[in-house]
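Predict structure. Chain length: 271.
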Amino acid sequence: MSRSEATFGRFFASEVRLMLGRRRNQVGLGILVAVPVIMAIAIQASGSTASLLGLLSANGILVPLGALTVEIAFFLPLAIALVAGDAVAGEANVGTLRYLLTVPVTRTRLLAVKFAGIALGALVAVALIAVVGLIAGVAILGAGPMTTLSGSELSFVESLGRLAIALGYASLAMAAIGAIGLLISTLTESPVVATISLMALVIISWILEALEQVSFLHPYLPTHHLSAFTGVLFDPVQWGDMATGAAYYGAVIVIFWLAAWAHFSSKDITS
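Prediction complete.
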């Protein structure tokens, strides 16, 4: 392993410890994983048989998919906004940014580590929802063949594969939201401002989604493709929307990371 790789590894490990050690992030993860548990209990108590809820009440393995569908609209972006908003602005706010850049960590490497931490945070958040939802769903509602929205049945192993696809897609989407947040975090020295700005962008995106007058903008909005992973609920899997969404979020990551790098590489660091 080269010296630069070792430096990157140590820096990334430090970033992960810092991210997972923050109390607000731990509380946020706790709230995220509470949703699928509450959902499983509520569905069991209500005995609902309507639409997707009917499938959920009959098959616990769909609980994590239902939880992701609910949380990806607001709660997951909020969790990512807390992490992304703090990435660079948080370092500037507490006066450690200049120190980081003197030890020797280039600005490019710092942004790479910060985004890697955001992406890992997205994966951890989505995975916790999926795992806790799966455990709660199977424990409370039972396991067995998964009935798809197409009317066919999938075995438990096949349905786990569908859940893995949804997990990967949702993680990519949240990483893309995080890349937007990383750019915003380089524009301010206040992590609160960066977090609020990213959430305001998400909320505005949802508002624009509801306006038919600007339908030409919908495919370009960061929220437009968020729920495409629900294609795994059909048989065969509806890959079209997921492929489009994955390409979109991949492009968002590249464009916004490069934009963050372009700004940050020439920025005067005063704190």
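Summary: Residues 3-264 form one domain.
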